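Example S7 (structure tokens).
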């Protein structure tokens, strides 16, 4: 084996171990998977969902608990969608799978004016179809392929365009309280996933079959974050850590923190408090 092939194999093994470690840590931190779970892995045909399925299948073989996996794809009937790709790949992979066929594409084209962004309503229709199938088939967890960068981008999207401090949680109970969503790739970088998908040569299905729009808000945020990371390496890591370290009393949400009741929690001033303040001031000015 040539030196370049040896180096490539070593890089791949390091990448694979890192991704599996991150997924395992996220699953443990948020208690994503329990013994006996029946997990629906939402497979779009993109790099993220392929990577998610690949890593979960590996964990399934080595985990100390038993859980089922079923790969599910929603065929939304976009023109040009290669219907044979996923069934062929999943059959060769020997994993249980199901293809849901629902023409949400026609609904989107009918409802959304020409030239307007279709991603929002498309994702809602897709989510509704997948949630419904999960309820009807005894699914206990729905695994989505969102990664760390998706979570950070969503936080800034909601902040800049929606006026909310809100992102994508690694684990979520759906609004109707019937489905639990998990995001095992929450600690994984998109760049690592892209390299892994390239190494594995997954049969990627492009996400522009419906005619993706340029200059979407998410792309603006993605460009901003990538620029920050180039200028300040590690910035995205720090931002993600910030999403895990929330201080409600230092924000301004009256529903999240009892600002009104602060008076009732205030301690009466004592000579000890005054002495501590004086000591701090004297120490600061004596430097």
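Recovered sequence:
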């Amino acid at each position: 084996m040539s030196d370049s092939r040896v180096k490539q194999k070593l890089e791949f093994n390091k990448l694979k171990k890192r991704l599996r470690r991150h997924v395992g840590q996220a699953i443990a931190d948020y208690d994503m998977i329990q013994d006996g779970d029946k997990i629906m892995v939402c497979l779009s045909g993109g790099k993220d969902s392929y990577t998610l399925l690949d890593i979960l299948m590996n964990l399934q073989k080595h985990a100390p608990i038993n859980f089922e996996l079923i790969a599910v794809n929603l065929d939304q009937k976009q023109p040009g969608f290669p219907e044979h790709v996923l069934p062929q790949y999943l059959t060769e992979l020997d994993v249980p799978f199901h293809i849901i066929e629902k023409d949400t594409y026609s609904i989107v084209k009918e409802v959304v004016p020409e030239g307007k962004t279709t991603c929002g309503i498309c994702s809602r229709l897709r989510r509704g179809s997948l949630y419904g199938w999960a309820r009807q088939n005894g699914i206990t967890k729905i695994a989505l392929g969102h990664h760390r960068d998706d979570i950070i981008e969503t936080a800034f999207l909601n902040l800049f365009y929606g006026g909310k401090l809100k992102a994508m949680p690694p684990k979520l109970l759906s609004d109707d309280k019937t489905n639990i969503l998990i995001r095992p790739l929450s600690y994984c970088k998109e760049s690592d996933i892209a390299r892994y998908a390239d190494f594995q040569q997954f049969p990627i299905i492009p996400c522009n079959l419906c005619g993706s729009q340029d200059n979407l808000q998410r792309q603006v945020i993605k460009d901003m974050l990538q620029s920050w990371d180039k200028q300040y390496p590690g910035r995205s890591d720090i931002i993600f850590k910030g999403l895990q370290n929330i201080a409600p009393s230092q924000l301004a949400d009256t529903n999240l923190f009892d600002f009104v009741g602060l008076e009732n929690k205030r301690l009466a001033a004592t000579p000890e408090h005054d002495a501590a303040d004086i000591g701090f001031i004297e120490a600061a000015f004596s430097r």
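Notes on this example. The beta strands are 38-42, 68-75, 97-101, 141-143, 171-173, 180-182.
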